[in-house]
Design goal:
heterodimer; A: mainly beta; B: four-stranded antiparallel β-sheet; 49% strand
Amino acid sequence: QQQVKQSPQSLIVQKGGISIINCAYENTAFDYFPWYQQFPGKGPALLIAIRPDVSEKKEGRFTISFNKSAKQFSLHIMDSQPGDSATYFCAARNNAGNMLTFGGGTRLMVKP
Amino acid sequence: EAGVTQFPSHSVIEKGQTVTLRCDPISGHDNLYWYRRVMGKEIKFLLHFVKESKQDESGMPNNRFLAERTGGTYSTLKVQPAELEDSGVYFCASSYGLAGVETQYFGPGTRLLVL
């Protein structure tokens, strides 16, 4: 049973476009929602994170939108660049422990 | 500052053999985690050390997996005997501090293939 569902599995966007990746969760005990970016041959690296007491967080071209009532959150990449091509994972942390529960990942390709 | 390192980067073994994976966390990080990604699915938690103690091992799949963190520094994850379904990428992560939402820093992973 997957506790964090991520979509789409793959995404192709033109350079300059907006990339949107969505995640949904069921466990209301989750209290921290990070997004990780992974390039081939590398480990996942924290990109941006949000707590459920805010509805949006922006860092440069990356924005997390959070809807607590719907138990959904999404990553928006504005002005997508070929260098953004990577696998993106959403995750959630349970307030009872430190373990992260990950979504299935989205392979993003930004075409020049 | 060096990041999380893992050894080996790749391992190919036959079913029934033993494999030991090693993780060196970022210096000073008390928390060390093991995760696994199998066949392109989600990354799944295996266990969490705080210093040398196992804080949470709820994700360990079965008793063929043994994790240790002697002296609270590096950690090893041994699979004995390995089965086909153990193939995947094993990630180690570390974080600073004993509680909270400190960032977990991931290593590059060990790609294990069991034939």
